[in-house]
Amino acid sequence: MNKIGKIAFTIIGLFILLFFIVDYINDNTLKYNDYNGNVEVYFIDVGEAESILINNKGSYMLIDGGNNKDGKVLVKYLKSLGINRFNYVIGTHAHEDHIGGLDYVIKEFDVEKFYMPVTAVPTLSYEDVVKALNKKNIKYNVPYEGEILNMDDMKFEVLSVKDNKDDLNNSSIVLKMTYKDYKFLFMADVESPIEEELLSSGVDVEADVLKVAHHGTRYASTDKFLSAVNPKYAVIMCGKDNDYGHPHKQALNRLKNRHIPIYRTDLDGTIIFKINKDGITVDTVKTNTNVEDK
Ligand SMILES: [Zn+2]
């Protein structure tokens, strides 16, 4: 190699090195900046029903919308948080305690994408949701198992969804959220047959936070399943003195035996998980979103 060749070679080499250094710095600044801004998961107290809000620095997903009677107060609460648009609204399954209030949400907010299982029953709650979607020309999407829903740097994997009209609980959309190293598992109202299926499919169910299946029923959260999830926190969404006796003591005991801290909407109100560079923190706050006794 002549002298000019050597110089050119060195310069190219330096540029390549510089490229990697800049890339490395960018990457790390990005990682740090990523935590500036709120990443929060709200388990909203809507009594014997469910509504979960995920905020990824101003991008929002709503999983379920409580009972029909919760619709108005839920909308008010969501607006008080400064939300006017949802990237995703998910109706996990066609029962009223999950989709009852969703028609209010669809009417009052911009909704980019809506998902529900194909399973539909001709109930008033379900028809209200479909009517609200049609009125705003929002498409009814049915997810498939293994589908990934991306929300900025957060991803949601659809672990289960079934066309099962005879058993709506087990038709539920089960989602696993991953944000950096943190994982949340949202079980909706499925019971042990779906837990079994997830375990035998070999899908990774391990999660930091488990939204316990079906309001803490004894027919889910088996020992085997809890071993696989190995959660650091468990959340049970249920109403005070509900007609079903949720959460059932068998499920509670299986969680307690593992020394998993349990948060409950009937006792704690709305439960808010925040993720920042120091890890996960939990807050509980009484909100006026529970209209159960009014
Ligand atoms: Zn339910």
Number of strands: 15
Based on secondary structure, the structural category is alpha/beta
* Major β-sheet annotation: 8 strands, mixed
Low-confidence stretches: none
Helix segment tally: 9
CATH topology, what is it called? Metallo-beta-lactamase, Chain A
Instruction: Compute the number of structural domains.
Output: 1
Q: Name the CATH superfamily assignment.
A: Ribonuclease Z/Hydroxyacylglutathione hydrolase-like
Terminal Cα span: 86 Å
Which cofactor or ligand species appear? zinc ion
Task: Give the topology, please.
Elements: H1 3-33, E1 39-43, E2 52-56, E3 59-63, H2 71-80, E4 85-90, H3 96-99, H4 102-108, E5 110-115, H5 124-135, E6 140-141, E7 148-151, E8 154-160, E9 174-179, E10 182-186, H6 192-201, E11 209-211, H7 223-229, E12 233-236, H8 249-256, E13 262-264, H9 265-268, E14 270-276, E15 279-285
Parallel strand pairs: 3-4, 4-5, 5-6, 10-11, 11-12, 12-13
Antiparallel strand pairs: 1-2, 1-14, 2-3, 7-8, 8-9, 9-10, 14-15
Helix pairs in contact: 2-4, 4-5
The structure holds zinc ion (ZN).
Zinc ion is lined by residues 50, 95, 97-98, 189, 215.
